[in-house]
Structure formats: C-alpha cells, structure tokens
Amino acid sequence: MKDLTKGNIYKTFILFAIPLVLSGVLSQAYAIIDSIIAGKWLGPVGIAATGATSSLIQFISSVFWGYSAGFSVYIAVLFGSKNYERLKTTLYSNFIVVSVSCIFISAIMILFRNQIFSFLEIDNSIKKDAEIYFVCYICGLLPILLNNFFAVSLHALGISGFPFRMALISSVLNITGNILSVTQLNMGILGIALSSVVAALVVDICYVFKIKQCFSKMPDEKDFKLRFSMLSIKRSVSYAIPVTLQQMVMYMASFFIAPMINALGGGITAAYSVVHRIYEINASVYQNSAKTLTNYTAQCVGAKKFDRIQKGIKVAFLQGAVLVLPFILICVFFASPICRAFFPAEYAGDGLEFSVVFAKFYLPFILFNVVNNLFHAFYRGVKNMKMLLITTTFGALARVVASAVLVGKFGIHGIYAGWVISWIMEAMLCVGTYLFAKPINK
Predict the structure, then answer these.
(1) Which terminus of the chain is more solvent-facing, meaning fewer CB atoms within 10 Å of its CB: N or C?
(2) Worst-scoring range by mean pLDDT, 15-29, 134-148, 281-295, 410-424?
(3) Taking the CB of residue 9, how many other CB atoms lie within 10 A of it?
(4) Residue 257 belongs to some domain of the structure
(5) pLDDT tens by residue, 395-406
(6) How far is CA 174 from the centre of its chain?
(7) pTM of the predicted protein model
(8) How many CB atoms lie within 10 A of CB 299?
(9) Backbone angles phi and psi of 121, in degrees to 5
(10) Are residues 342 and 50 in contact, defined by beta-carbon separation less than 8 angstroms?
C-alpha cells in the first residue's frame, strides 16, 4: 500500500500508472484476440455476433464500473485519513451490494433478451450466434465485473502492480481458452464467451486472498468484526452514484447508436466491432493513466493537501498524452494490416474497408478525448460530481444527436463523425469550465 501524496510527483505518477496502463492494454488485448479468433475461424458473422450486443453489455457493465470507481474514491479518502476500520467495512459492504445487484440485473437481461434483440435491430444472419454469446456472457457477468471491483479497490490503496499481474494471468487464461475451445473443441461462439468467464473466476479468487492480506496489515480495535453496514453504503453512495450516472450516460450514447449501426447491415456491424476494439485499446491507455490522478487527488483530499492537486493535473495530462500517442500512430500507419487481422484471409468486404477508414482518418481525434477523460478523473477525485455529470451528459448528447443527423446521408461515416464531434465539443466545455470555475470542493 502506498501514500501517493509523498515523494517526487513525476516518479510517483509514472510508477503507479505503468502497471495500470499495462493492465488495461492486456485486458483489451485479449478482447481483441477474442475478436480475431472469432473472425479468423468463424468469419465476419463471428465478429458481428460478439459485437452486436456489446453496446448493451457495456452499458450494464458501466453501472458497476461507475459504482466501483466512485466508491473506490471514498476508499482512497479513508486510506488517506488512516480510517482503516471504516475502510474495511465499506469495502465488504459494497462487495455484497454489487454482487446481489449484478445477479438480479443479469437475470432480468436473460429473461428479456428477445425484446432487447428486437430493439437493437440485430440482423437475422447473426442472431443465433449473438444470442449464444450474450446468454453465456451475461451468466458470467458477476465474476467479470468483480475483477474491476477488486482492481479499483487496490488502486485506492496505492497498489497497481498486483492488478497488472492479475490482468496478465487473465489474458493468458482467456487466450488459451479461446484457442482450445474454438480451434480444438469446436465450441464456436460459446467458447469465446466461456473463456472470459472462466478466466475471471480464477482471477477473482486471487484478488480475494490479496484483499484479505491487505486487511491483515491495517490496524484496528481488538473487538472489530467485518460486517455489512448500511451506514457505510450510505456514505459510499455520495461518491458512487454520481460516477455511476456519469458512466451510464456515457455508455447510453453507444446503446442508442447501436440500432443505427446494426440497421446498416451485418458487414457494417462487423466493421464497427473492429473499430470499437481499436478505439478501446487506445482509450484504455489514457483512461488507466488518468486513474492515477483520481487516486492521487482523493488521497490529497483525505490528507487535506489541496495545494498539490493542480500540479497533479498537469503531470497527468502530460503523462496520458505521451503514453497514448505511440498507440495512435501505430494504428494510423498500420491500419490496413491491423484491421485485416480480424478477418479471414480471402475477405474483402465492407467490414474491412470501413474499419481501415476509421483507423486512418478518425482515430487521431481521440486526443480530444484524452482531455475529457483527464477531467473526468479529476472531478471524481475531488468529488465534484456536478461538473462530472454536466460534461459527460453534454458529450453523450452531442454524439447521439450528431450521429442521428449524419447517419442517414453518410452511413457509417456519419457515426464516425458524430463520435469525433462529441469529443471536440466536450473537450471545449471541460477546458472552459476548469479555467473559469472553481472545481475543487474542499
């Protein structure tokens, strides 16, 4: 466990961020390999089937990502103030809430999957495989989401190395499982989903032992007993709910845009699935780098070291931009071979063409989203949830409106352009509000 507010800030940030970034890249790498295996062995239908419901899966997951990210800020504050008994109770209580809520929501989604598929306008050519993937993945959603829950909890304690090792183990298990289940056991799309669930279960077990080890090192009263506390949940909610809403708003935009994309045909759905993988591996770099700023500012708030926060913002921006730029350049200059890796050797359809176009011409604008994500991380750390929700909602609305206006005339290019427009408009709002407002709540 580490106090991030002490020592050289540049060294502290980079040493904390590198394992986070590597963890994120590894997580996205095995997601990409999922898609590549699906594309190479199952064809464009396999890629489309794994991506057709991804907007909904990400939207539901965002509820728990947001909740975990929000309550982990409170954990960082408690750690900074050395309130270890409340920290333990809060972590345990939130684990119970997340687990029960996830099981309930997963059951609802499986029961109403036909209505969900109808809303998403999933093409009949991929519907059967998409349903198999969706049902298996949702049945295993809890262990998958708990990976993130445990990881952000350790981040709040200043630990980033262990989550990186867990991401590495998960990647190896997932890739091995995919290869065996698809190429050797002929399980098809079911093997892709099942591998993710099994890998997550193994990693969760490791996380539980690590959390227990951390608890044993925190001093507490002799009569202290770990128990569920509604009071701890109430205190967590003030941090967690606004971030949950922010994440929901952000991914809700993708959910509403999904029918526009699926309506363009299976080839376009496959193209967007590839595009989203390319976007996610770049985004994972600056998003995970920015987590350093969230935990740093939260610990500063807990320790009442407000004067150090502004410098943290500058260091975090420089760090995020420098780390993501090589990934962007690789995707731009090697767009064709990267995108071709997702498709069978003989394939030359719309899916390949439109994914290459995105990587070459639209992806570089993601630098504007680096700015947006930085301010999201900052606002979470200082508990300025009002600005977090305002900027995110603005960006999400801009994306949905721009996409709806442009898709009719420009097709998939309208979807891409709507994405870029939302990045630029939100970045302008984030910078403007920071320069002319007082964003730090002391």
Answers:
(1) C
(2) 15-29
(3) 17
(4) yes
(5) 999 999 999 999
(6) 18
(7) 0.71
(8) 26
(9) 55, 50
(10) no
pLDDT attached to residue 348: 62
Residue 22 belongs to a domain: yes
Spell out the long-range contacts of 431-438 with Cβ–Cβ below 8 A and sequence spacing 24 or more.
431/371, 433/387, 433/390, 433/391, 434/375, 437/387
For residue 43, is it left (φ>0), alpha (ψ between -120 and 50) or beta? left
pLDDT given at position 2: 66
Q: Answer yes or no: is pLDDT of 70 > 70.
A: yes
Residue 442 within a domain: no
Type of residue found at 18? I
Domain limits for position 324 = 9-436
Distances (CA, A) of 66 to 13, 58, 148, 243: 23, 11, 10, 5
Q: Fill in the amino acid letter for 291.
A: K
Count of domains forming the chain? 1
The answer to whether residue 3 is domain-embedded is no
Six-digit token pair at 192?
Answer: 């892709």
Assign 438 a pLDDT band (cuts: 50, 70, 90): low
Helix ranges, 112-229 (H): 113-120, 124-139, 141-156, 161-178, 189-216
User: Alpha-carbon torsion 85, 86, 89, 94, what sign?
Assistant: negative
DSSP structure class, residue 3: -
Nearest-5° Cα angle at 89, 147 to 378: 60
| More confidently predicted of 4 and 17 | 17
The Cα–Cα gap between 332 and 33 comes to 19
Is the four-CA dihedral 294, 306, 77, 429 of positive or negative sign? Answer: negative
Q: What stretches of 180-265 show up as alpha helix (H) in DSSP?
A: 189-216, 230-262
Q: Is 218 exposed, middle or buried (0-12, 13-18, 19+ CB in 10 A)?
A: middle
Can you give the pLDDT at residue 439?
A: 53
